[in-house]
Structure formats: C-alpha cells, structure tokens
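Sequence in, structure out.
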Amino acid sequence: MKTVIIDYNAGNIRSVENALRRLDLEPVITSDPQLIREADKVIFPGVGEAATTMSFLRERQLDTLIRDLKQPVLGICLGMQLMCRHSEEGDTDCLGIFDADVKRFVNQRHEDKVPHMGWNTLYNIKGALLNHLPENPYVYFVHSYYVPVGDYTVGTTDYIQPFSAAIQQDNFYATQFHPEKSGAIGEKKKKNFLFEI
C-alpha cells in the first residue's frame, strides 16, 4: 500500500511519519503531484498558521490537487481546518471540501484557556474512521481554532462549547485531535484509516 504524507511546509510531519513506521509502513513525504495522485492513502497533517499555509498550497497548485483526490484522504489538526471553506485565522479562504467556517475559541470563563491543549473526551462518534473505539475515549488536542458541529461531524468534543473533533465527507476524513499523540486510541484510528477504509 502506497501511503503519502503531503509535505506542505507545516509542522508535525515527522511525528506522523514515525507513527506510521510503528505500524510497519514506509510513507513517502512529498509535494510531488504525481506521487500524491498515485497513492492509495493520503495524509494531510499540519501544525501551523492557516493563511501562510494556504498561500504555500496555492503557489504549488496543491490546493486544486487535494480537492480533486479520489482516494481516502486524512486531514489532521490544521489539515482538517484547511479542508473547510474559510478560517477566522488570518481571514483565510481554504480548500472548501467541507462547507464549514473555522472559528477561534473565545474564552467564556476565567479558567478557559486558549489554545485548548491536552486530553479530552470524544462522544457521538460514528463512521468508519472511529470504528471500534471504546465509549468516550480520550484523545490529545492542541488548537486555538475549531470547526463547529455540523452534518459532517462524526465525533464531538466539549471545550468551551461543543466542536467537531472528527469530520467526514465522501473520501475525505479529518480529526482535530492528534492521533500520533493519542496513545492506543490514536493508533486504532490510524489503523482504521489505513487498513479498513
């Protein structure tokens, strides 16, 4: 199975690569359009800033390429946010795969901290990506922006308010949480995407 991690000037790529190597996979890290199109599975990870990253993607026409992919694609953290229509981070137009606007967390109470950082619970989970997980599993988050709950939501988390921890539409899957930092739950989610979808 050919697994590609899209290299698009965003952080966290090496930790995703190492997580896949622990599953005895040899992912290719690339921005080469042909290699991306030929992959069986594509991973679109990211830690970074929306506007800068979208500029990078557009300059290399990777924005169009990603939207047109037909094989399973997994977005992680910033990758999930960039799959949406628009982000409040830098007032940025994104890929538009999901008809959703990415919002910034607004503190409601003194104890609310932004970014949301640490372990939190998933609930209302459904679909192939989160299949066979235990009830209310804990996963790891680091983010200041969130995708509201909508028709595409396949997993929800509460922090300040309910938000989409995982979304899915057609061949596009995404999680706000970091599977590579989420222990056994994250590993199961990676296996679901790589071997069952």
